Amino acid sequence: MAEKLLEVKNVSKIFRIGGMLRGKKLVAVDDVTLSIDADKPVILSVVGESGCGKSTLCKMILRLHTADMGTITLNGKDFADKKSYDPLQFKLDVQPIFQNPYESFSARKAVDTYLFNTALRLGIAKNKDEANKLVDDALKSVGMSLAVVKGKYPTQFSGGELQRVSIARALITRPKLIIADEPVAAIDASMKMNIVNLFKDLKDKYKVSFIYITHDLSTAYYVSDYIATLYRGCLIEYGPAKEIMDNPAHPYTELLMNAVPRVGDKWKEDLVMPEMEDKEYSISYCKFAPRCPYATDECRKERPKETFLGPERKVLCYHPLYTKEG
Ligand code: SF4
Fold first, then answer.
1. Is the CB–ligand 1 distance for residue 116 below 6 Å?
2. Hey, how many other C-beta atoms are within 10 angstroms of the C-beta on 112?
3. pLDDT, tens digit, 9 for 90 and up, residues 4-58
C-alpha cells in the first residue's frame, strides 16, 4: 500500500451552539475519511456549499482545531500526539493560503517583509543573500519578482497579484502540502482561473499537494485530480475528478454538477440551496433525504454506509446514480 502524506480517518468535529443546558450539538464534520498518497502530488478539491464543514475540516488539518473523534496523521505522525510533530517541522511541511489576501498582510507593512520573515525565521535561509534568492525564486514561480514587489504595500496590488504573493510566501518553506481555503473567493472572476492554473503548475514543479477548499465548482472541476464533496459535514462522494464529472454517483453531486458552467456558458452565480437548518446536521439517517428526489423509506431509517465504486471512488448513498456495473 502506498505511503500516505495525509490520512484523515473517521474524523468528526462537534460544536455546541446555544447555552450549556439548552444548547444543541452541531456535528460540523461527521465521520470523514480521506487520504493523500506521499509519492504522487495531487490537487484534492473539497467542495460543498457554505456550512458543509469544509473550512472546519481544513482547520483540523492545519491543527487550528482538534478533532473530537478519529485521527489525522501527516507523514505517519498523529496530530493527537503533541510530541510526535515538532511545530517548526509542521510549519515547513504544511502551509496555508487564506481567502482574502488583503487580510493576510498588514496594510502597514511592505509585503516582501513577510516573505523574508518566512525565509529567515524558519531557518530556510541562513543570511540575507540566501533569503533574497529564495524570495525572488518563489516570486518568479508565481509570475512576479522581488524587483517588482520590493517595498510595496498590499494596497498597491490587485487581489489576484496579492494572492500570488501569498502563494509565493507559502512556497518558501518547500511544503509538502498547501491548504488553500477559498483562495479565489475574493478575487475578480477573470483572475480565478489564473490562480488555479498556478496550482497545477506548482504541483508538478514543487511536488506539492494542494487541498483546495472551495464552493467554486467550475474551478474545482477544472483543477482537481480528486474531488471530495461534503454535505452537512458528511463526505458524500469522493473520487477522481474526471470520473465524478462524467458520472456523478450521489444525487447531491449531480445537483452540484448541474450548476457548473459549461464551455460557452456565461459565468453563473453559485448554486443556491434552501436555507440550512441546524437539525439537518444531526439527522441520524441520510442527511440529504429531505431534499433527495430518489429518497426511499430505507434512506429515512439509517445513515448509508460508504459504498466503493472503484479502487479510489466511494459514495455515501443507498441508491447511487452510478455503480461499478455502470
Ligand atoms: Fe438520496 Fe437515499 Fe442516496 Fe440519501 S441515501 S442521497 S436519500 S438516494
1. no
2. 21
3. 999 999 999 998 877 666 677 888 999 999 999 999 999 999 998 888 899 999 9
pLDDT at 225 over 60: yes
Say if ligand 1 is within 6 A of residue 167 CB.
no
The number of distinct structural domains making up the chain is 1
Round to whole Å and give the CA distance between 274 and 254: 16
Give 267 Cα–ligand 1 centroid separation in angstroms: 30
Closest by Cα among 100, 99, 7, 138 to 60: 7
β-pair partners for 227: 45, 239
Residue 229's DSSP bridge partners are 47, 237
Residue 26 domain boundaries? 4-316
Q: Is 295 in the pocket of ligand 1 (CB under 6 A)?
A: yes
Distance CA 82, CA 60 (A): 14
- CATH number of the domain to which 220 belongs: 3.40.50.300
The answer to whether position 326 is within a domain reads no
